[in-house]
Write a structure and sequence with these properties.
The protein is of the alpha/beta class. The protein has one domain: Alpha-Beta Barrel (TIM Barrel). Helix content is 54%, strand content 17%. It has eleven helices and eight strands. The protein has an eight-stranded parallel barrel with strand order 1-2-3-4-5-6-7-8, surrounded by eight helices. Helix 8 packs parallel to helix 9. The longest helix is centred in the C-terminal third of the chain and has 16 residues. The termini are far apart. It binds erythose-4-phosphate (E4P). Erythose-4-phosphate binds next to helix 7. The site of erythose-4-phosphate (E4P) has 11 residues, from helix 7.
């Protein structure tokens, strides 16, 4: 399973890249706003640092506008993927962009039928927002299971990016379901490798090592 970083902060991206764990990056307008930087400066930097797909979001609500934005964003680098919200105009844009060879990540996905349409339109990626569904009392991971089943029933090649992750169990369940990718906040990466039993075990080994004649 690939791991993407869900951020627009350059320092976070550099760190995870240097740990050797970074397969790609997803940004969104909220992440970009938090950095205080202009996308004109930020996007090329992110694309240079990341050896993998970088999702940049189009903000137009009409198909023509999305396509226009996507063409401009795609000029930034070869690894740019255009995030397109799931809606009728978005689907029209996804199909046009696919024909032009521009990859899309269909975002803000909350139902398996939306994911079916995104795959039919030719999306390279689909992003179900699992944590946001959990918040409204609907099990987010059920959505991932449904999408996985539909895509395998019909052989769609669209890759599933499990998004809006809220805890490590979302990552574990994604791997068990066979989702292609999880996109994580920086802190979640640490939570994947940290374990109190690991810390205790290391400390005990080190204590015993002191007793070994040198
Ligand atoms: C995914 O591509 C989105 O950027 C992201 O996962 C949304 O997550 P949030 O609900 O934590 O904002």
């Amino acid at each position: 399973m690939k791991l993407f970083l869900d951020t627009a902060f350059i320092e976070e991206i550099k760190q995870v890249r240097d740990w050797g764990l970074l397969d790609g990056v997803t940004t969104n307008p909220s992440h970009v706003a938090k950095t205080g930087a202009s996308p004109k400066d930020l996007y090329p930097q992110i694309c240079r640092i990341v050896d993998g797909p970088v999702s940049l979001e189009a903000v137009s609500l009409e198909a023509d506008g999305i396509v226009k934005e996507a063409r401009e964003l795609a000029k930034i680098a070869d690894n740019v993927v255009i995030k397109v919200p799931i809606m009728r105009e978005g689907l029209i844009a996804v199909k046009k962009l696919k024909a032009e060879g521009i990859k899309t990540n269909v975002t803000t996905t909350f139902s398996a039928l939306q994911a079916l349409l995104a795959a039919k339109a030719g999306a390279a990626y689909i992003s179900p927002f699992v944590g946001r569904l959990d918040y409204v009392g609907q099990r987010g991971m059920t959505l991932v299971e449904e999408i996985k089943k539909i895509y395998s029933n019909y052989g769609y090649k669209t890759e599933i990016i499990v998004a809006a992750i809220r805890h490590p169990m979302h990552v574990l369940e994604s791997a068990l379901i066979g989702a292609d990718i999880c996109t994580l906040y920086f802190d979640w990466f640490k939570m994947l490798y940290e374990h109190p039993m690991t810390d205790i075990s290391i400390q005990n080994f080190l204590k015993d090592w002191e007793k070994v004649p040198k």
